[in-house]
Design brief:
The protein is globular and about 50 Å long. 36% of the residues lie in helices and 27% in strands. Bound molecules: adenosine-5'-triphosphate. One of its GO terms (biological process) is transmembrane transport.
């Protein structure tokens, strides 16, 4: 068994526009190990989200995966029939996006939303999903007596935690987090990410973490990849990318970020 859970090989993704095609992701090759927290950094528009959508096969027209392979546990996701892909999505590859907290159904109580997702993917009963909901609430630090509340009764940070809790309840092997806390204030953002790192230690899932914020990424991740205009220009462990960046653009990216005090959460930096 390869130690890599995800291997992206020579991935090219285009947007097919009236004026011609635009290559947003160019020949990207990267891998994420089992239990690894991998960060993808780069300025707005460099292609990070396009990669996230390609992995989950949620790219919508005009996006088009032109070529490449995306191996998940050795299986090329790009060749899987839709039905097989649906079984992998959420159950084995979880996703938390920036606006995920808005994806909760405002008319449904949270316990019912847990049941809806868990029943669909694992066939579990109402009492089993209720137990899971309470266990996950505890893990993400929300009192379990709130489990029957409606989404509007929670703050934005709590709602984002609930989405992470629902995602984790399915015990995915890989979680893709695309700017998962950008909409939240920095204190809440930090609390949530600290929890994600704790949970990762407990459950051992892998994370693809996407953000503009290199400092936050360096605190959270084991390895970092840096993208520039669709290309992956540098990949390395946090220490190398932060202290001895190989690419000029990575240096510029660090210099462009305000230096905030922080400590490393994932443990890659001693
Ligand atoms: N639906 C679309 N139609 C045309 N071009 C698109 C579309 N979505 C994205 N693009 C282009 O593809 C490129 C990559 O976009 P992408 O959203 O992947 O970047 P990103 O690095 O995730 O940016 P951000 O950090 O702002 O989310 C950009 O140039 C963007 O303008």
């Amino acid at each position: 068994m390869s130690n890599d859970l995800l291997e992206i090989r020579n991935l090219n993704v285009d947007y097919l526009l009236d004026k011609g095609e635009f290559r947003a992701v160019m020949d990207v090759t990267l891998s994420i190990g089992r239990g690894e927290l991998f960060g993808l950094a780069g300025e707005s528009g460099c292609g990070k989200s396009t990669i996230a959508y390609a992995i989950t096969r949620l790219s919508k027209p005009p996006a088009w995966v032109a070529s490449g392979e995306i191996l998940f546990d050795g299986q090329n996701l790009l060749e899987l029939p839709q039905g097989e892909m649906q079984k992998i999505r959420w159950k084995r590859i979880g996703m938390v996006f920036q606006s995920a907290m808005n994806s909760l159904n405002p008319l449904m109580r949270i316990d019912a939303q847990f049941h809806d997702v868990l029943h669909r993917h694992t066939g579990c009963s109402k009492s089993q999903s209720r137990q899971q909901a309470e266990a996950m609430f505890k893990l993400v630090g929300i009192p379990i007596n709130r489990v029957c509340d409606y989404p509007h009764q929670f703050s934005g940070g709590m709602r984002q935690r609930i989405v992470i809790a629902i995602c984790l309840a399915l015990r995915p092997e890989l979680i893709i987090m695309d700017e998962p806390t950008t909409a939240l204030d920095v204190v809440v953002q930090r609390e949530i990410l600290e929890q994600v790192v704790d949970l990762q230690r407990t459950y051992g899932f892998s994370v693809l973490f996407i953000t503009h914020d290199l400092h936050l990424m360096a605190q959270l991740c084991h390895r970092i990849g840096v993208m520039l205009k669709g290309e992956l220009v540098e990949v390395g462990d946090v220490r190398q990318v932060s202290q001895a960046p190989a690419h000029d653009y990575t240096r510029k990216l660090w210099n462009a970020m305000p230096q905030l005090p922080g400590r490393h959460l994932a443990g890659a930096i001693a």
